[in-house]
Design brief:
It contains 4 helices and 18 strands. The chain is an alpha+beta fold and 413 residues long.
Length: 413
């Protein structure tokens, strides 16, 4: 009899079943979808990191500016009389130093408040008149271009013109072009011929080893010239508005002697980041100062119902009751509005006009189309001020767009 031995070795499979392939695809798709969601999140986080880094740099620049010019606190309008400090029927001595915002607002239509002051002179408006609570100072930076140079952080440069130019121009404080050439540069100027944005001219040496850059102080189409000296009038005297750096002297910034040029470039840095200072006088006579850093700050526009400087009434929610204004140690507030919704967003900032303090918005509770309930961090540091009759005053908030961060600089004399 022939016997057969049964094999226990399993038959080798040459492929996967359709079910196994589908299960594998499902698992892989879950992983890919999860991974894909990380890319936009990583991009947003990277962009935020860049903004925070730039904001930190600008915070130190603003601190250095304040150290160089302490009169921004002691004499913000650069007139030594004490009466020129922010009174103007205000309940407290709070104000802002806002070179860029002031310069932008100064060119707008000027509906006046009871003190006959224009929008540019106050931070905040109700759509019809300026709010008298927070006085705004430009710190006398002159044109928009000078303001941008003082309170901005350019991170991009727009090239307006590049021209070959040969010859020795050592010691020069201005340059003259052929008729019609200057108009092709597209430099915007105000009524006094000052650039509306910071404009710089760079000279490249003939040997290619060095270059010299100067900020343009005057664009003179009538004589086809650009000037970078503070002596705009050319009379060797320090006239009003010429002391750009406020050092009390007339700076001419001539090119080095025997400098030989081979080409020039005219460029305008793009101001994406800028700062303003909020100042609060305290009982000790010192001032508490905050640096507020913006990214692509929109200009103030009182004709826009959604303007960043539009103010809104605020109440604090305490249980089932409402208390006018901000209430110390409370973080749940209600913002009332009509028409266009204020630019309120989670993670953004609001400004308490009555106390000149900034708070971060941590959460939305409700929005019914006429009022928004939200929480702030930290809880209100102080309550809204009261007038001489004990009535709450300054119970108003503002929601500026583009605020990256608010830094405290502590107290200053």
């Amino acid at each position: 009899m022939i016997s057969h031995r049964l094999s226990t070795t399993p038959t080798r499979r040459l492929g996967s079943t359709l079910t196994e392939v589908l299960v594998a695809l499902m698992i892989m798709s879950i992983g890919l979808v999860s991974l894909a969601t990380l890319f936009p999140l990583a991009t947003l986080r990277a962009a935020k990191a860049v903004q925070v880094t730039a904001a930190t740099d600008l915070r130190y620049i603003a601190d250095a500016q304040l150290t160089m010019y302490p009169q921004m606190i002691t004499d913000p309008d650069l007139t030594p009389q004490t009466s020129n400090l922010p009174g103007f029927n205000q309940l407290s001595l709070n104000w802002v130093i806002d070179p860029i915002g002031y310069s932008n607002a100064a060119g707008l239509p000027k509906p006046l408040d009871v003190n006959k002051m224009a929008f540019a002179d106050f931070y905040g408006h109700d759509g019809a008149s300026a709010s008298p609570f927070i006085r705004r100072y430009s710190f006398n930076r002159g044109s928009v271009g000078l303001a941008n140079d003082f309170a901005g952080l350019p991170d991009t440069v727009n090239i307006l013109a590049e021209k070959p130019l040969t010859g020795e121009i050592g010691g020069a404080t201005e340059i003259t072009f052929a008729p019609g050439v200057l108009s092709t540069f597209g430099i915007g100027v105000d009524g006094n011929g000052r650039p509306l944005t910071t404009t710089r001219i760079t000279f490249f040496s003939a040997d290619g080893r060095t270059s010299q850059s100067r900020d343009v102080t005057l664009v003179d189409p009538s004589k086809n010239r650009l000037v970078w000296s503070e002596d705009i009038n050319g009379n060797d005297a320090l006239d009003a508005g010429e002391d750009v750096n406020l050092n009390g002297g007339l700076d001419r910034h001539p090119l080095p002697a025997n400098f030989v040029v081979t080409s020039i470039r005219v460029e305008s840095p793009e101001i994406r980041y800028s700062w303003l200072l909020t100042v609060r006088r305290v009982n000790s006579g010192l001032a508490e100062v905050d640096v507020v850093v913006f990214f692509r700050r929109p200009p103030a526009d009182p004709t826009d119902p959604r303007s960043d400087e539009q103010i809104y009434p605020v109440v604090t929610l305490v249980g089932n009751t409402q208390q006018p204004g901000f209430l110390q140690a409370k973080d749940l507030i209600r913002v009332q509005y009509s028409g266009a919704r204020p630019a309120v967003r989670k993670g953004g900032f609001l400004f308490d006009l009555g106390n000149a303090r900034w708070y971060r918005i941590t959460n939305f509770v409700a929005d019914n189309g006429s009022q928004i309930d939200l929480t702030i961090d930290p809880p209100a540091i102080v309550s809204s001020p009261r007038d001489n009759q004990g009535n709450v005053s300054g119970d108003l908030a503002m929601f500026p767009r583009g605020v990256v961060e608010v830094f405290s600089l502590g107290t200053r004399p």
